[in-house]
């Protein structure tokens, strides 16, 4: 048969989904696996959101909707940005897509052409480089390791920019590290990006999952110029435990929003119509939503602190206390194994599933998701400790 396309040959399958699938298959086969690989909250979607979607389904919201999203949802998202971040956007600047992943992809397609370079700070979310390549553009990685708290410095950014650089991807709070930029840090980075006329895709999907009083800031709010160059991607998956609903959002300058909508109109059409009514309830029934989110944050924060403390008790492991998302990214470089070998052996010998740092462009680390039960975290970290003790 003739060969498959360049796209098919060059795409790397998602390593996070692969590790999680392997862990789930072992579990299904009756193995006692402690899974730290999942990128989703272990809570169910709050009832009021499910009920709103069920009511919409029952009442016949089963047809195509406008490509960029149902109007009341676009309005509610615009109001939410104004209320929370003081960002004034028209509903026309808001696009609802089938998942934040697709929002990212369409945003990249809207601004990148073949030959363009895109700066991706590492450790990065696994899908960015693949999406950039699918747009025909070239990813340029800049490693921001634990010595800078996994945060890119303005000097690192400056050094990576070339005349071909078109876009900078930022992700705070971060997957995989949980790192959160302060306002001052982000302002300094945005200043460099604007001076070089870059677009910024700010992936803010973990914006509500913050601890220790950390505050979410968006580059789009810094100045008129910053607003004109920033594409905000977010979504309902992580904040409201709605990963399976596939609802992502893009908030962008009008011309980019229009391009995203047009790309979406030819590739997927609207996000599932009745699901959007559930999302609308998430934004409209504020008190119920806040109660559900607060309960989730209490559990995440407790697990974060516990896992962090236990990891740092293990000789040879060093872990920063991240202030966002639901991941920790311990440094395991002292064991002299590459991270993929470390994770393979950890799963084989101890039945602990974690994702290797090299999947995120940072060998020598592991990504552990604490979006799982307290018991699994306790048991899993004990097993990790004995695994490490045997390596020493
Ligand atoms: N961006 C980041 C950094 C993520 O971690 C994820 C999910 O893993 C997404 C975007 C996309 O989420 P979804 O497609 O479920 O909305």
UniProtKB/TrEMBL annotation:
PROSITE patterns reported in the protein's UniProt record: AA_TRANSFER_CLASS_1
Cofactor(s) listed in the protein's UniProt record: pyridoxal 5'-phosphate
GO biological-process terms attached to the record: amino acid metabolic process
Keyword Transmembrane: no
Enzyme nomenclature, EC number: 2.6.1.-
UniProt xrefs under InterPro entries: Aminotransferase_I/II_large, AspAT/PAT-like, NHTrfase_class1_PyrdxlP-BS, PyrdxlP-dep_Trfase, PyrdxlP-dep_Trfase_major, PyrdxlP-dep_Trfase_small
Domain Aminotransferase class I/classII large intervals: 32-384
Gene Ontology MF term list: pyridoxal phosphate binding; transaminase activity
Enzyme class label: transferase
Keywords: Aminotransferase, Pyridoxal phosphate, Transferase
Alphabetical list of CDD domains matching this protein: AAT_like
Family of this protein: Belongs to the class-I pyridoxal-phosphate-dependent aminotransferase family.
UniProt cross-references to PANTHER family, sorted A to Z: ASPARTATE AMINOTRANSFERASE
Designated name of the protein: Aminotransferase
């Amino acid at each position: 048969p003739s060969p498959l396309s360049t796209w098919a040959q060059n795409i790397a399958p998602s390593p996070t989904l692969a590790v999680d699938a392997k862990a789930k298959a072992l579990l299904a086969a009756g193995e006692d696996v402690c899974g730290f690989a999942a990128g989703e909250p272990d809570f169910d979607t709050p009832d009021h959101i499910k009920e709103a979607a069920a009511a919409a389904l029952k009442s016949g919201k089963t047809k195509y909707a406008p490509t960029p999203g149902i109007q009341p949802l676009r309005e509610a998202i615009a109001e939410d940005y104004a209320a929370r971040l003081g960002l004034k956007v028209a509903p026309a600047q808001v696009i609802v897509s089938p998942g934040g992943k697709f929002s990212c992809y369409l945003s990249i397609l809207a601004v990148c052409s073949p030959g363009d370079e895109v700066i991706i700070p590492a450790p990065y979310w696994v899908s960015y480089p693949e999406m950039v390549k699918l747009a025909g553009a070239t990813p340029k990685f800049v490693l921001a390791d634990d010595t800078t708290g996994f945060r890119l410095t303005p000097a690192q950014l400056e050094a990576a920019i070339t005349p071909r650089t078109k876009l900078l991807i930022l992700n705070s709070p971060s997957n995989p590290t949980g790192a959160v930029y302060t306002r001052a840090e982000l302002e300094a980075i945005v200043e460099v990006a604007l001076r070089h006329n870059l677009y910024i895709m700010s992936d803010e999907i973990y914006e509500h999952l913050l601890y220790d009083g950390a505050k979410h800031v968006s580059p789009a709010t810094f100045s008129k110029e910053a607003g004109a160059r920033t594409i905000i991607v977010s979504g309902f998956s992580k904040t409201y435990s709605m990963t399976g609903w596939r609802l992502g959002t893009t908030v962008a300058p009008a011309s980019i929003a229009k391009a995203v909508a047009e790309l979406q109109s030819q590739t997927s059409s609207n996000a599932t119509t009745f699901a959007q009514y559930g999302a609308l309830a998430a934004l409209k029934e504020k008190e119920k939503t806040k109660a559900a989110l607060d309960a989730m944050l209490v559990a995440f924060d407790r697990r974060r602190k516990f896992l962090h403390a236990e990891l740092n008790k293990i000789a040879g492991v060093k872990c920063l206390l991240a202030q966002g998302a639901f991941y920790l990214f311990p440094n395991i470089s002292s064991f002299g194994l590459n991270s993929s070998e470390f994770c393979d052996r950890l799963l084989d010998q101890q039945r602990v599933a974690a994702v290797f740092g090299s999947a995120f462009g940072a060998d020598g680390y592991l990504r552990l998701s604490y979006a799982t039960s307290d018991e699994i975290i306790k048991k899993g970290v004990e097993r990790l400790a004995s695994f490490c003790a045997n390596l020493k």
